[in-house]
Amino acid sequence: MSKAVLCLLMAVVFIPAGVWTLRTAFTLTEGPHVFVMLVFSGSLMILIGLAGLGGLYFRWRPPAPPEEDSGPIPAEDKEEE
Hints:
This protein has helices at about 1-25, 30-60, 75-80. By secondary structure, the chain is mostly helical. The longest helix has 29 residues, at about 30-60. The N and C termini lie far apart (about 50 Å). The model has no long low-confidence stretch (mean pLDDT about 85).
């Protein structure tokens, strides 16, 4: 349960902070290095938030059913038959 709370916290905190940072980057009139720093940090924050959403999705998704068939027959075994 604590992992789900952490993933939810990541999504709720980092996605809005990253969007705010990106919007701020495009409104600044200072040097280009400040713009680049804010764009990269905002993008990283959004990616961390999306990782939290992915963690929630894969945590609550039902597992795939096990397959009874082991897959296709390899080409070497087909020739013998």
